[in-house]
Each structure stands twice: as C-alpha cells, then as structure tokens.
Amino acid sequence: MRIKPFLIIIYTLAGFFISILSSFLTYIIIGKPIGMAMVIQIVFVVVFLTPVVGIISFVLGRYLSRKFDFIKNRLEDIKNENYSKDTSQNTITEINDINDNMNFLSAQLNNLIEDLKQKNQNLSNLLISMAHDIKTPITILNGHIEEMEDGMVSADKLPAVLEHMKEEVKFLDELTIDMLEFITSMKKQKIKEKIALHTFVKDEIFTILSKNNKVKYLNDIDINFIIEFNKMDLKKVSLNLLNNAIKYTKQGYIRVYIQDDLVVFENNGKNIEEKFKEKIFEPFFTISRSKNRKKGGFGLGLSIVRNLCKNNGYTCTLQSSDTIKTMFCLKKV
C-alpha cells in the first residue's frame, strides 16, 4: 500500500475510535446511566466528526506523504545509477537523517562503481598492452630458434644470437614484474606504520639508487617529520619517483623535502609538458610517441605510484613542471 492512503486510513480509524472512546468515557466522568437521548447524541457526534477527521487525515497524509516521496524518488535514482546528492531540507529530523544516510550511500556506491569501471579499464589495457609487448620478443625468440634448427647460425655468430635472446627474455621478465606490481598496487588492505622519513630516505632509498656522479642527491626532509604509510609501499613509491628523476636528470640535482606538509620529490631534469600533467599517471601511457622497447619502459611506474599512494591515504600529483624544475608531491587526503 502506498504511504498516503495508508496514513489516511490509519488517522481516520484512530479518530473514529477516539471519538467513540471519548463519548463513552463521558459516562464514567458523569457517573450516570446513558439514556437513549445521549446515545443518539453520541452517534450524531461520531457521524459528524468522522468526515472532519477524514479531511484532517487526508491533509496530514498528503503532507507527510510528500515529505516521504523523496525516499521513493531517491531509491529510483539509485536504481537508475543516478548518485547525485539531495541537499533539500525538511522540518522532520528523521527525514533529514534518512536523506543524509542516502547521500552517503549514494556517494559510496558511486565511488565503488567508478573504481570498478577504472579497474576494469585498467585490466583491459593490461591485456592489450601485454599482447602487444609480448608479441615482439616472442617473435624474435622463435625466429632465432628456427634459424638455429635450420643450421643458419654459424659458430662464430652463436654468442651474439644467444646474447640477443637473453635480452629478449630479460625484457619479458621485466614486463612480467611490472605488470604483477601494477596488479598488486591495486590491493587496498595495507598495514601502515609511522616512519621517520628522513632516516628512511637516507638509509633505505639513497643507498640503493643507481647514482650519477654529475647529480647531487639532497635529503632535506625535516629529521622529525613522521609519515604514516605501509613501509614496502613507501619504498616502491620513492624508488619509482627517484629512478624516474635519475633517468631524465643528466646533471644538476635530485631533492626530497617537506613543504606545507607535502612530501616533494624535485629534480631539474627533463620537463614534462602541462598537457601530460594527468595523463602520465594513466596505465601504459608514455610521453614518447616512438616507444623504444628497451628504453621507454612500459608506462606503469607512475600508475603504480598513484595506486600505492591512494591505498595509503595519499595522492600523488605533478605540481610543477617547467624548464627549471619538476616536482612530484605526495599529499595526505
């Protein structure tokens, strides 16, 4: 039954019984037997009041049903995947509470669906990229195997052919590792801990970097700065950002510091154009149009960084990219 007729019936019946009860309670109050004249008067009053109560019930039922109509409409919107918030205010506190809860539910469902869509797109890209990137080395390996089977590789050329085959196997190994890292980076359940970032970068990051003698490596993090992060995730994030900086910084500096509660990874290497500010975080995106399989990478590094940051309550953004410096910043959400 719809809420309006239900409320009208309930209020009408309630009014009817209250009228009868009130009339007969008069006998108890007066303390005298009810004669036929009083019975007729009681019946007359009940009959007279019933339509009045009905009208009042209709008005109240219509008013209250309108107040609750938004519940039906919001549920219909959610059913149709419309998760927009409703900020209208009602005089009934419970209705406002229901509305707030439905707004929260709508936001959660919207985020969940968008997250699933993004992951589905990422996995589709993963399969497409895997098929594309695996095809070339497998073709090369098969070609060399056929050449050796047909006796087309002489003894003096064999070491060079084997070296080439090892390079292709290494490429496949690196591709597999990167794709596994990317899939793992989407896992959200992480155990975080408090980390003294200055000491962490000094002892666990800078010590294992492949350094360039023409580049200065500066750890300017406040020694008292503490970050709450999964330790392995933080290590992967830092190494990804710093190794990218090393790749494009031939001489100058690479610096890690804190600025307005941002963890900043800065370098003065190759600048990134403004139009690529967000696209560089997309899976499998590389700035170079003529992708070199050996040098260009797979375009997963910064996607992994953003996923790991998100899973730890941070976001990673490119804050500045010009001819002077490039800054990747970690910000607590």
Topology:
Elements: H1 3-30, H2 36-79, H3 93-149, H4 158-185, E1 193-196, H5 197-205, E2 215-220, E3 226-229, H6 231-248, E4 252-259, E5 262-267, H7 301-311, E6 314-321, E7 326-332
Parallel strand pairs: 2-4
Antiparallel strand pairs: 1-3, 4-5, 5-7, 6-7
Helix pairs in contact: 1-2, 2-3, 3-4, 4-7, 6-7
Explained architecture:
Strands 2-4-5-7-6 form a five-stranded mixed sheet, covered by helices on one side. The two termini are 46 Å apart. It has helices at residues 3-30, 36-79, 93-149, 158-185, 197-205, 231-248, 301-311, and strands at 193-196, 215-220, 226-229, 252-259, 262-267, 314-321, 326-332. It is an alpha+beta fold and 333 residues long. The mean pLDDT is 78. α1 (3-30) runs antiparallel to α2, α2 (36-79) packs parallel to α3 (93-149) and α6 packs antiparallel against α7.
Key terms:
about 325 residues; alpha+beta; Helix Hairpins; 3 domains; 7 strands; elongated
**Form type:** elongated
Largest sheet: 5 strands, mixed
Q: DSSP helix count? A: 7
The tally of structural domains comes to 3
Give the structure's gist in a few sentences.
The protein has 7 helices and 7 strands, in the order H-H-H-H-E-H-E-E-H-E-E-H-E-E.
